[in-house]
Specification:
With about 475 residues, the chain is an alpha+beta fold. It has 3 helices and 32 strands. Helix content is about 15%, strand content about 45%. It is rod-shaped, with a radius of gyration of 48 Å. This is Ig-like domain-containing protein.
Length: about 475
Amino acid sequence: MILECFIFTVITFLVTETQCQATEVFAEEGSGAVLPCKTNSLSLIPAAIVWSKANKGTVWRKQKSGLQYWGASWLKSGSEGTRVRCPHSQFERGDYSLQINRVTEEDGGVYSCSVELDNRVVEEVVILRIIKVTVSPSVPIWGQDVSVTCDVTPWPYGLSVQWILNNSPFESQGQIISDRDVTKSVVRQKATARLTGNWSCAVSIRGKMGRASATVSVKGIIQPSDDNTKVYAAVGSSVVLPCVFSTGLIPSSPVWDKLKPGSHFNPAPGLLPRSFSPVSPLSQFAWDRSASLKEVAFDNEGRYRCSGIVQGQRQTRTMQLVVAKIESNILSKKKGSLMLTCQLSDTSEVTDYEWVRVTYDPNGTQSFETIQKGNKLSISVSEEIQGEWTCRFYGRGGILGNVTHHIQLMSGLSGQKSTRSSYNTAAVVGLSFLLVVLLLILAQMYKNHQRRKRILQYPALETIVHSISNEREEKERSRIKK
């Protein structure tokens, strides 16, 4: 036994230093591994096979009689049975490879395969390296220090390590430790949504490659995923300010603030708008702390912050509300033109504007017509312009939002057109008044004519009427003289 241990110690040393005769095999912890052992000569005579591990003794062996033996450390109690096997179906092909199921970190090391065929012994040396990726803490909270470690047992000199996150090479913003003086590669970062996903450690040495993976799930505020995320809303509309924690993560002491303009490092809270509601009508779960504004005003723009305590640590997220409106101005009363201007409280992410006219058919079906690009639109009031005019604004990732302006009446758009309407109304009223007066005069003249006509039919009566009228006039004159 002492001699065997000495021999494997020498083999281990030689393999580690020269790496010229050993076969490298990588396996992820918990997976299966196949240690190759093949010969070029075929024999019908049963072979004696011995698989051993340096400093651990026999793993598995088979005598020429067919009897098999397992090392004590490789036998499992219960229904699991043994973790190692050497398929007999492959022996006739000269394949005596060893299969190990559910490999552990302790399985890493130097293995030896010895096959006795026709009084000839064939030996192979295999190095099994176990790759393991661990995350600490296992479920990090947003803002905590998190370490992702890649262990390779045994760790070889000159090993190349590459970290892959969600199928893309990981670009570290923190610290990665990996050199000849350590036996692991460690990524240390602050836990953010950027770290969420599948981490893979890809290793290679002398053309042999292996990989192991682990999933990182960062808990905290998951929506919005980053600070200073912009939320767009039109004046007069309602808007939801998102603040959603990880599923099942219920924060204590949730608070909403509107931050005063100024420093981004230590902003002071200000007054929330009157229409602000700390609970969104869409919130159905205790971990959804989204808020809402029922009717957005232009001065509601600015930065908002939600926060809550999770596992003794306060989680915060800031977001910016960008408010959009359309200004309407009359350019010229004589020409009758109207200028619409699309205004946003922050245009830093806006790359383009688009004006769209919205019309409805008798059935109420909407139709859209793109008019022009740019944040300004000039309209002639001679056209049929009443209806809805929408300004859409775009960013690099597509549409950011839109705002709509309603034009009700053409007469209200131009001072000239309103003045003409007033003049026409006055003229109609004046002509109507003159016509009424003329009709009254004609009616009075007709009545006088009819009365005279009746009197002329009785001459005596006419004489009496004239006499009475003359007497009245004389009396009036006499009274005046007195």
